[in-house]
Design brief:
Elements lengths: L12 H11 L5 H17 L3 H9 L6 H17 L3 H14 L4 H14 L2 H17 L3 H4 L2 H14 L3 H18 L2 H17 L3 H17 L5 H12 L4
Helix pairs in contact: 1-2, 2-3, 2-4, 3-4, 4-5, 4-6, 5-6, 6-7, 7-9, 9-10, 10-11, 11-12, 12-13
Length: about 240
Amino acid sequence: MLDVSEMWDFDDPKKSESRFRNAIPGAGRRDQQLLMTQLARAVGLQGRYDDGLALLDVTQAPDPEIGAWVHLERGRILRSSGSPGKARPEFEAAVRDSVGSDALHIDALHMLALVAEPEEQGALHEEALRIARSSREPRARDWDASLLNNIGMAHADAGEWRDALASFEIALSSRERQGDAARTRVARWMVAWAMRNLGHTVEALAIQRMLKAELVAIGEVDPYVDEEIALLEKAPRK
């Protein structure tokens, strides 16, 4: 199947929309349907929810995997438009139909977790992480960092900061393995954030200052890093 991930620029959904529109006419029939689902997602990310749903309405599903993409992207648009209740059955259908593709199955599980009840989310994230860790698909294995971050956030929301830190530290190792500098910086920020909430202010400040230095070196600014540094510089040293 066509790898649509390389066509995406999530920072510029309008550019992604253009790429998908241009690719559809020359693609094979099955790939055309996959491209339609991603075109719908790009349109939805621009807030044009009705247009995105209309594209999915005319997308054909020649097999369960394409059907899973249709359900997944319909669920994403419904969730983004403020209808998580309507999104849930779409994500459940995507989970059901995506069992032949680990990466797609993980994506569906992770989206289902985002609309599930709090007591259900942990099991869904853990199931997705189990699949990621055992998969032979590189794209599926690379889901581990995002899933560990989600698990860490669930612990943080529950005030379980030691467990949150443990998850964020493993997520950081995964990001380092993947080699994406920007996402690795975010993962380091998460570790420092958890440390601050555990009272480890000296270690947390050292990490945030290193992040600040790296950002200055590449000419970028991150207000979240600046906010944490300001908080930590006023905090008692521990």
